[in-house]
Amino acid sequence: MKFYNLLIKYRLQLGIAMGIIGGLTNYFSGFWPAFPLYFVGLILILGHFFFGPLRLIQEFLEAGDMEGAERVLNTIKFPGLLYKPIRSAYYTLKGNVAMMKQDYDGAEKMMKKGLDLGMPMKEAEGASMLQMGMLAMQKNDMKQAESYIRQAIRKGLPDKENEAAAYLQMCSLMMNKREFRAAKDFFRKAKALKPTTKQIVDQIKQLEKYITRIPG
User: Fold this and answer.
1) How many structural domains are present in the chain?
2) Rounded distance, CA 119 to CA 117, Å?
3) Can you give the residue range of the structural domain that contains 43?
4) N or C: which terminus of the chain has fewer CB atoms within 10 Å of its end residue's CB?
5) How far apart are CA 190 and CA 208, in angstroms?
6) What are 181-200's pLDDT values in tens digits?
7) Distance between CA 38 and CA 17 in Å, rounded?
8) Does 21 or 66 have the greater pLDDT score?
9) How far apart are CA 200 and CA 169, in angstroms?
10) Would 72 be classed as within a structural domain?
């Protein structure tokens, strides 16, 4: 795994180096002895531009190191050359980083680009829709937030934590609209999933204090 990550990190440099060595071999020994070097070098260079280093981001995300993830993203100078599903993931990750930095306009712009390109899985599209809904809530655009979160629920979400978060956001939106019966229904759905994320568990505990007192 470490070797593969190093290969991804330095494949552009390796590809250029193999091209140079191939050129020298071609000069001294002819084309055919140099051909394998040319071929492998070309594959490495194309891989750098078409697939990018997104695999390297995984370890930073698992460690919660968004700065490290951003450094990897910043090494991609020509995102337009990335293979379409990878380009979609690139813009989604850029949106996540911008959201963590509270750059909500930048986050919305990047996530919309990712969604416009299409997601490889419906659950990934649902997760992006959920994030777009949360962004809209941060901007107090409740109508747009409700539209995005309803779409996220319809498309499906990758796990029960995201699903519970979506139901809780809908609960808050319904309470804001004074549609208390719908709010209670969304709250019950969130609680039934038994999420374990601390932030979501705390939100359920806080809402539970008030949800039983409201009419409907």
Assistant:
1) 1
2) 7
3) 1-51
4) N
5) 11
6) 999 999 999 999 999 989 89
7) 10
8) 21
9) 10
10) no
